[in-house]
Every structure is written in structure tokens, then in C-alpha cells.
Design goal:
Layout (H helix, E strand, L loop, with lengths): L1 E5 L2 E4 L4 E8 L8 E6 L6 E6 L9 E3 L7 E6 L4 E6 L8 E7 L10 E6 L1
Parallel strand pairs: 2-10
Antiparallel strand pairs: 1-3, 3-8, 4-5, 4-9, 5-6, 7-8, 9-10
């Protein structure tokens, strides 16, 4: 399985960013997926998760630090999971990764988001 996150960059505080992660080589549709982030010098932390399966709606969940600002979504046809990030804060600066929820695949390439104050 290959995980390729993209969409990071430099954004001002209060701005928005949309991250994408293409998942190659899995039965994506049935898998619970998540976004994680790692700040410099800190451990990687879970940010958001979205349930898989053959359904029309996908229950999601969020870390308290991003609840109400971030939205996770998925497109099973494109085998892609997204993270819409709004009202960004400097403390959101981190490298963001996708993986299963909970994480069990080898980590792929992350994407760096830098929020300037």
C-alpha cells in the first residue's frame, strides 16, 4: 500500500487549506481512514478519522484541538481521503499524514503545513 499526501504549504493564520491523500493498493472502500500530524520534536498525533464501508454517509471524529475547524471526507471512487482545514492557527503547523484509523500501514510521505501568525 502506498500513501501519498499532498496539499500542504504556507498559509496565514485564519486561512484554509485542503489536504488530499491518495491510497494505492488497498480495499480502500471498506477501510476506516485517518489523518495524523507531527509537529517538529513531538510525537505523531491523531487528528481525524472517518469510517469506511458500503454506506452513503461516513461517520467522522476529531481531536478536540481541531473540532469545528477541520473536516475529513473521502471519495471511494478516487480512493482518496481529504482534510479540509479552516481557521488555521500557528499551532496547526505540522507535517500531516494519512493512514488507517488506527494506523497500521507503513507511513507514507506527509505534507507540511506551515501557518504563519
Amino acid at each position: 500500500v502506498q500513501l501519498q499526501a499532498s496539499g500542504g504549504g504556507l498559509v496565514q493564520a485564519g486561512g484554509s487549506r485542503r489536504l488530499s491523500c491518495v491510497v494505492d493498493g488497498s480495499n480502500f472502500r471498506d477501510i476506516n481512514m485517518g489523518w495524523y500530524r507531527e509537529e517538529s520534536g513531538s510525537e505523531r498525533e491523531w487528528v481525524a478519522g472517518i469510517v469506511g464501508g458500503g454506506r452513503t454517509t461516513f461517520p467522522d471524529s476529531y481531536a478536540d484541538s481541531v473540532k469545528g475547524r477541520f473536516t475529513i471526507s473521502r471519495d471511494n471512487f478516487k480512493e482518496t481521503v481529504y482534510l479540509q482545514m479552516n481557521s488555521l492557527k500557528p499551532e496547526d503547523t505540522a507535517t500531516y499524514y494519512c493512514n488507517t484509523d488506527p494506523a497500521r500501514w507503513p507511513w507514507g510521505q506527509g505534507t507540511l503545513v506551515t501557518v504563519s501568525s
